Amino acid sequence: MPKAFAWSKWRTIAKLDPEKTLENTKLHRLVKSPVLDAIVVGGTQGITYTNTSQLIKQIKEAGYRGPLLQEVSSLESITPEADYYFIPLVLNAGNLEWMRDAHLRALKSFGHLIDWSRVAVEGYLVFNPYSAVAELTSAVVPEKEDVLAYLDYAENILHLPIFYIEFSGSFADMELLEAVGQRRRRIHLVYGGGVRQARQVAQVLQYVDTVVIGNGLYEGNDILKDVFQC
C-alpha cells in the first residue's frame, strides 16, 4: 500500500462498478494507462461485500499497483482489501440517511477501528435527476444559483476536503464548472459524469482538480485509446 493518501495530487481516476462487468482485456489495458492516477471501486445499486471484494481482487490480478480505493455506499460492503476509502455525503439528499444517519450508525459501531489517515470525505452534489444515485437518495437537484451556496456550505461550514460534482452519465455545463472553480478557495474539486473523450477531460480539468471516468469504460474501446492512452 502506498505510504501516503495523496488524493489531492490525482488528476484522472477510473471508477469501476462491482455490479458491472469489465472485460479482462479492457481491464488489463486500463491498469497500464500512463495517465491513470487511481482506481475507485464503488457504485449505487447491488453493491455487496462479495462483488466489491471480487472486483478489487480482479484489479490486483490484472497487475494494477497504484492506489486502489473503495467508495463506501453501504456498511455491509466495506472490505479491508482497499488501500483507501472515500466516504460520500450527499449534500442535496432529500433523505438524511445519505447525509447523516448511515454515517452515524457506522461510527457508533466501528468508529474506534477506523484509520482516518486512509479516509477522505466527499461532499457530493448530484445533478442528474434520472440517475440511480439521485433516486436512491431522493436528491433535490439544485438550481444553478444554489450550486455556489452548496459549495460554500461544503467548504466553509462543513470544512470538507472534497466537493464532488456528480452528473452521473450526463455531461456538465462548463459555465457551471467555471463558476464553481472561480468561487472555491481551498476545497478540492472532483467532477464525474459523461466523460468519454480526451477533449472533455481537458475541458473539465480547466476548472476542477480531478476527473472521474466510470460509465464510459463499459461502453466501448475508444475511451481506452483516447482518454487513457492505452
From TrEMBL:
Main enzyme class: transferase
Among the GO molecular function terms of this UniProt record, one is: metal ion binding
The source organism is Thermanaerosceptrum fracticalcis
GO term, biological process aspect, one: glycerophospholipid biosynthetic process
- Quote the PANTHER family the UniProt record gives: HEPTAPRENYLGLYCERYL PHOSPHATE SYNTHASE, PTHR40029
Q: What is this protein called?
A: Heptaprenylglyceryl phosphate synthase
List the catalysed reactions. Answer: sn-glycerol 1-phosphate + all-trans-heptaprenyl diphosphate = 3-heptaprenyl-sn-glycero-1-phosphate + diphosphate
Give the InterPro entries listed for this entry.
GGGP/HepGP_synthase_I, GGGP/HepGP_synthase_sf, GGGP_HepGP_synthase
Q: Could you tell me the keywords of this UniProt record?
A: Lipid biosynthesis, Lipid metabolism, Magnesium, Metal-binding, Phospholipid biosynthesis, Phospholipid metabolism, Transferase
Entry EC no(s): 2.5.1.n9
Q: Does the keyword Repeat apply?
A: no
Q: What's a Pfam family this protein contains?
A: PcrB
Q: Which domain of life does the UniProt lineage start with?
A: Bacteria
Under the heading SUPFAM superfamilies, the entry gives: FMN-linked oxidoreductases
